Amino acid sequence: MEIPYAVRARPDTGLYNAKLGIWLFLASEVMLFGALFSSYILLRVNADPGTWPLHLLNVRLGAINTLVLILSSVMVVFGWASLKMNDFRAYKRYQGVTLLCALVFLGIKSFEYRDKFNHYEVQLKNGTIYDGHIDRDNKDTNIFAFEAARMVTNHAELMLPPSTDTKLEPAQIPLVKIKDRADGKGKEIENYGPWHSSYLAIYFVLTGLHALHVIGGAIVIFAIWGPLAGVWKTDPERYINRVEVSGLFWHFVDLIWIFLFPVLYLL
Amino acid sequence: MQDTSHAPEAHHETLGFWRKYIFSTDHKVIGMQYGITALLFMLFGFCLMLLMRWQLGHSGQAVPVIGHLLLKLHGPDMISADKSGAVGVISADLYNSYGAMHGTIMVFLAIVPLAFGAFGNFVTPLQIGAPDMAFPRLNMASYQFYVVGGLIMLASFFIPGGAAKSGWTSYSPLATVSDLHRPNGQTFWIIGMVCLINSSLLGAVNFISTIVQLRAKGMSWMRLPFFVWAQFVTAFLLLLAFPPLEAAGVLQLADNLLGTSFFLPTGLMVSGTALHVSGGGSPLLWQHLFWFLAHPEVYVLILPAMGIVTEIIANNTRKPIWGYRSMVYSVLVIGFLSFIVWAHHMYLTGMGTKIATFFQTTTMMISIPSVIILTSLFISLWGASIRFTVPMLFALGFLPMFGIGGLTGLPLGFNVSDIYLHDTYYVIAHFHYIVAPGTIFALFAGIYYWYPKMTGRFMNEFWGKVHFGLSFMFMNAIFLPMFMQGMAGMSRRMYDGGLTYAAVPAAAGSPGIPGLSPFVLFLNKPILWAAVCLGLAQIPFIINFFWSIRHGRKAASDNPWEATTLEWQTPTPPPHGNFAKPMEVFRGPYEYSVPGQARDFTPQNEPDPAQLLTHGNPLRS
Amino acid sequence: MSEHITAPAADGARHSVEEAKRHMRTYAIVGVALMIGTGLTVWASYINFHSRETNILVALIIASTKGFLVAGFFMHLISEKKLIYLVLGFTVFFATGLMFLTLQSMQPGSIIHVQ
Q1: Apex A183 CA angle, A181 and A187, nearest 5
Q2: Which chain A residues in 47-86 lie under 8 Å from chain B, judged by CB atoms?
């Protein structure tokens, strides 16, 4: 039993089934990320003044990741065009670069996430707030060993990029004693995980969901490129369709990042 | 057309038991899998309701017969003993769990999988003349996601703290703070919902692609049976409305497991202590994202039912449907408008009059195409020679019941009257009228109607009529009094049935306290008995369903109802691939009693002798 | 071995090698444009316009342009079929509706001030 129009286009719609299918799926993804972007806007608009940070994330890494994804998108479409020109080896090379780009993107993202989890904010009883990266090798449980930090007296100052007068030289960073931590109601000791603030929460959810899509897309592209490459020999048109459809998904993932980067990193 | 490719399955391979019945990619098998699973969930959801109604009618009294079983299932935190020492009193938390899960299970695990997953899957490819769905393996994956989601939902009853207990609407912050241990019932609810949403999304992609791409030659858009149009619009609703709820689910899961505050406002206190979260979130954000899905969801609940009823009415009136074109345009308009009415569920959240008026306007507008569809179906009865078969009885019953349900929605759509009626039993009566004697009747109708195509036998007619009569009576007995209770001001989700707000009559020295009258409170008891009787009335149906597979009256032909649509032009049951050779369609879907024809119906694929002499039908879109 | 199979067609049209090479050039140009756009967006974000709104507007304009390039050229939307435009048109309408109506419903002017 053969499903019609699985490979050839249906004349009146001009589409083959999977092409329509992937665009429908992408439409649902637009609604998904649209809802998340709406949530971002809402959370930001309704945030109390002085609680929303600016340039908290590493802009350079974000920009590199943006360029990496753009390159991967170009590679995907080069790969597809090579297949249309019957050049399987070129496709293999281009798509291989795509997969490498995906790994680089995920690697940088993992580094950024880990960096956030090592970034702590410690408020002492006397009101001083130390904010910086901790030394994970420190075994002394009575102190909080910062590798680099700045010292501020109110929380709102943390929302801006570090200025020279708050930044501390390594020699100036005191050993923050755990027993001096503020107690109870406010923040005492918090790392920059999703629980830290609305901004970080939406950052982790948006980039986390996006990263899951990168992983999913990369797996599918890899499967078609590697284990399922034999279909090129038996049914080249079906193979090209698969490459095109997975490519559409990949471009969408790139498209989402094109909006995520400025919204989360720059604004 | 050159065929250089081969479908994954070989043409004449005999499949083993597992590939044929459990891991099937055939839309008919998947449809039946959805159907059986959904009916089981519906029965379970019904039982949850019975337990709730017991508690409402006999607050604080132990559930009879199964009290000890409940204690074993839920533990002593949820089930206690009453004043007489009998074990089986449902606690407030457990009542809330029953309520939240009854709603969730009925909507997402029973009705939608039955209306869209079961009927949609089984009938749609047949009615458009296709060999299967566009993506058979995706179809199987949809069903599997559904089962996994359903099992996660069921499992949640057995974890510490029990199942989700914050309403099927899961409003934050209650959803996040009702159980402070992690993971909890709400965690399972969210993860289950993510699975169900993904199941629906895959299904929606499949349905739309199939209907667009796999229509047989000559099956133009305006020749589609209304059932297919209804499923088409339903699929679009699922495709575009579910993702925001999935997003909201991810955010609420983060609140639940990661300690974020997407929906938790600053300064939230729980039991006197401040919750240790960052704050800055918005409970209203959850509501908007939830209702953005949940409103189109109610159209997902009703449109397939309208589709089924239309098919059955055309078939049993032996007339074309009156106003087919208007119905098609109406269902498209309903689909469109359903995306921009959602905040009529949120009139009491302080939106401001401008926005509230906007939503009120769109809500009023959407009632128009709904009325057009219902009116067209009523007018279709005019001058008909009605065959009062069991499917037709249920279809006829659907009409006034949906009418009552729909009309009682109007005071809820108006901002000003909704202020009084919001969150009362009036709302419960309104939506149950639409879904229970509405959609469920249409689904029963569909089961009786398509049963001969699936099995080659009829279900027993006498017991079908008994099923109809009793169900009709008891559905009304349950839900009609609820309008009265709602208008008297009885709130939803009160586990004591309203006793806390009972009116206290004036006595010497005190003016009394206004509240719910004894009669309004008393109504909880007959509602309970009607519910029990409704349950008993399903027993003949269940027995009939299984008994008739082997012993039902044999259908004399492949088209025993003498229907025009393509699903009846196949062998019974339809084989893998459905049609022996590609179908070609020459006429519209409801050519009944056409003057000049030999029979009172002409199947869609029957060629016009005159047309055969010409070059044949070009493929029209 | 694959070189001996005739160039496969998609959507019923046959592409000549020349046409495909032209497409590759377009993709490369778009790719470079996207990278320039990225640099532009970073640079613009550090300009002090004395108004947050302007920074946001500039960033969104640049991002939208980049988005259109990806969608139009890489995803071939610029030459896609009517049905796809229809689906995407409705999607964008509903996504905008969700965003706009939700925000409007939650403005500080309403009775309940949202935190």
Answers
A1: 80
A2: 47-48, 51
In a domain, B136, yes or no: yes
Q: Do B282 and A28 touch (CB under 8 A)?
A: no
- pTM equals 0.93
User: Which amino acid, B266?
Assistant: T
- Lookup result for tokens 């989360």: A264
A161 class by beta-carbon count within 10 Å (0-12 exposed, 13-18 middle, 19+ buried): exposed
Residues A64-114: tens digit of each pLDDT = 999 999 999 999 999 999 999 999 999 999 999 999 999 999 999 999 999
Task: Give the pLDDT confidence of B502-525 residue by residue, as tens digits.
Answer: 999 998 888 999 999 999 999 999
Farthest-apart Cα atoms in chain B, separation = 96
Domain that residue B536 falls in: 28-57+91-262+282-504+512-551
Sign of CA pseudo-dihedral B277, B281, B282, B286 = negative
Distance, in Å, from the CA atom of B39 to the CA atom of B57, rounded to the nearest integer, reads 27
The chains in contact with chain B, meaning 3 or more Cβ pairs closer than 8 Å, are A, C
In Å, how far from its chain's centre is CA A193? 14
Where do the domains of chain A lie? Answer: 18-116+197-266, 119-191
* CATH code assigned at B294: 1.20.210.10
The C-alpha atoms of residue A151 and residue A132 are separated, in whole angstroms, by 9
Task: Say if B518 falls within a structural domain.
Answer: yes
ipTM surpassing 0.90 = yes
The answer to whether position B12 is within a domain reads no
Distance of alpha carbon C74 from alpha carbon B176, whole angstroms: 42
What digits encode the pLDDT tens for the residues B2-50? 343 444 444 456 778 888 888 999 999 999 999 999 999 999 999 999 9
Q: Is C5 helix (H, G, I), strand (E, B) or coil?
A: coil
C70 shares contact with chain A (CB less than 8 Å)? yes
Report whether the peptide linkage leading into residue B173 is cis, meaning its omega lies within 30 degrees of zero. Answer: yes
Give pLDDT tens digits for B438-452. Answer: 999 999 999 999 999
CATH code, residues A18-116+197-266: 1.20.120.80
Contact partners of A by the rule of 3+ C-beta pairs under 8 A?
Answer: B, C
Q: Which residues pair with B592 in a beta bridge?
A: B601
**Nearest Cα to B516, choosing from B528, B505, B529, B530?**
B505
Interface of A with C in 114-173 (CB under 8 A): none
B221 touches chain C (CB under 8 A): no
Is residue A6 within 8 A of residue B8, CB to CB? The reply is no
Residue B97 lies in a domain: yes
Show Cβ contacts of residue B214 under 8 Å, excluding neighbours closer than 6 positions: A3, A4, A5, A17, B125, B128, B130, B131, B133, B134
Residue A11, C-beta contacts closer than 8 angstroms, at least 6 positions apart: B619
Q: Which of A13, A84, A86 sits opposite C5 (nearest CB)?
A: A86
Nearest-angstrom CA–CA distance, B600 and B562: 9
Number of domains in chain B: 1
What is the least distance, in Å, from the CA of C5 to any CA of chain B? Answer: 13
Mean confidence (pLDDT) of chain A: 90
Alpha-carbon distance A238 to C8, whole Å?
Answer: 10
Closest CA to B277 of C48, C89, A198, C28: A198
Q: Reduced to 3 states, what is the DSSP secondary structure of residue B507?
A: strand
A31 interaction partners in chain B (CB closer than 8 Å): 240-244
